């Protein structure tokens, strides 16, 4: 059930409104098997379901806290319509205490209607990653359920049984602990990224290669290889808003979240790090330059542009009078929706078309498709023979062997050579 009727209509016709690998087949198969129905009619949805998941958006409010208006609207929708006992599960990422608010909103509606029905409200946060959503859902590393009801415990165990066969991944806990678990998980992952980005900047200054450091520390299982890739800052619809919401929650309880303050500050700076390198390379004058830009979405395998670092990078380049020729395998439509016919932006149909007439290349998203690059051809095409790589896609020596200047993130040695190179080119 979605209030966006156009989305519902598309889904009914087998059209997936977002790009998510593997989703189309699952929707088609289960629609065909009559396992899956789409509706914009709340009456129909509430009457049909024993268990109702609330999975609507929780965008940041003006003060950074999570805006609960959509979540509470669903709660009221349920309270206005339920005629028998229901279980309502909060799947949206919501601050601690929200399940109590959801229950209160439902009970208020029931009271208005003089109904005395049992309502169970529980928390079941979602941990999937965009671009890997299907696999993360089918093979979860944990299924967190916050509840104080044996009835819900039984329902959830039965519901998740098909995804829980190999080993028991159900983790039952208190509702408040479940709500906090979601924020703590995202905040920890964002912290790993900002930590690594800070180390990367230090590595640049010290002439060390952060990719070697990453291997060196990731091999310690206490640290692990995941989420220590330096880059141009974390984006997307979750980390930025969830870090902010947790900061806000701490603040409300007189507990400033000092680590998260730093995580956010480092991320904000990191998003402009590559632009600073561009300016440094061109000694502050990029007016009239044309930059090819590969990758626009906030990460590969999605068309999601929410908080994508590419946006800030493009906007900074336009501000300085440069033009952008951009290509992304999936996000072009979304970029067009956001920027319309921007005079500084040309969207090209292929990766190579973005290079035509460009002075330099900037890489914002590490789509697999960009890995196999022909550096000799790039050196021929790019008039200033320079690549600014925000995702450390290539081995610096290979790029430089083609006569290109290569800036990556935290690769001090290559940076040192690049800076020497650009100084000598400019005499
Ligand atoms: N996107 C992710 O990868 C991800 C992963 C884990 C958790 N989450 C959390 O899940 C929640 C949803 O995220 P999203 O990215 O899917 O948001 P979204 O904004 O893309 O989608 C929310 C949908 O809810 C619909 N909606 C709004 N009000 C409604 C109502 N009253 N009844 C029915 N539908 C309604 C909207 O029309 C929209 O289609 C957020 O709390 C987010 O933090 C998202
Ligand atoms: O080593 C890394 C890993 C990620 N990122 C960046 O971090 C952001 C988020 O990436 P990722 O976590 O893979 O994508 P999301 O789909 O936003 O998923 C996160 O946010 C979801 C919504 O809450 C959670 O469910 C997931 O568990 C959590 O990983 C992106 O900009 C990535 O480029 C890095 O810079 N370095």
Automatic annotation (TrEMBL):
Q: What is its EC number?
A: 1.1.1.22
Which UniProt keywords are present, listed alphabetically? NAD, Oxidoreductase
According to its UniProt entry, the protein's GO biological process terms are: polysaccharide biosynthetic process
According to UniProt, the reaction catalysed is:
UDP-alpha-D-glucose + 2 NAD(+) + H2O = UDP-alpha-D-glucuronate + 2 NADH + 3 H(+)
Q: What does the record give as the active site?
A: 238
Instruction: Name any one GO molecular function.
Output: UDP-glucose 6-dehydrogenase activity
User: Which residue numbers delimit the UDP-glucose/GDP-mannose dehydrogenase C-terminal domain?
Assistant: 292-396
Ligand binding (NAD(+)): 2, 7, 58, 93, 130, 241, 306
Instruction: List, alphabetically, the SMART domains matched.
Output: UDPG_MGDP_dh_C
Q: What Pfam families would the database entry show?
A: UDPG_MGDP_dh (PF00984), UDPG_MGDP_dh_C (PF03720), UDPG_MGDP_dh_N (PF03721)
Pathway, per Swiss-Prot/TrEMBL? Nucleotide-sugar biosynthesis; UDP-alpha-D-glucuronate biosynthesis; UDP-alpha-D-glucuronate from UDP-alpha-D-glucose: step 1/1
Can you tell me which family this protein belongs to? Belongs to the UDP-glucose/GDP-mannose dehydrogenase family.
Q: Per its record, how is this protein called by name?
A: UDP-glucose 6-dehydrogenase
Source species: Pseudohongiella nitratireducens
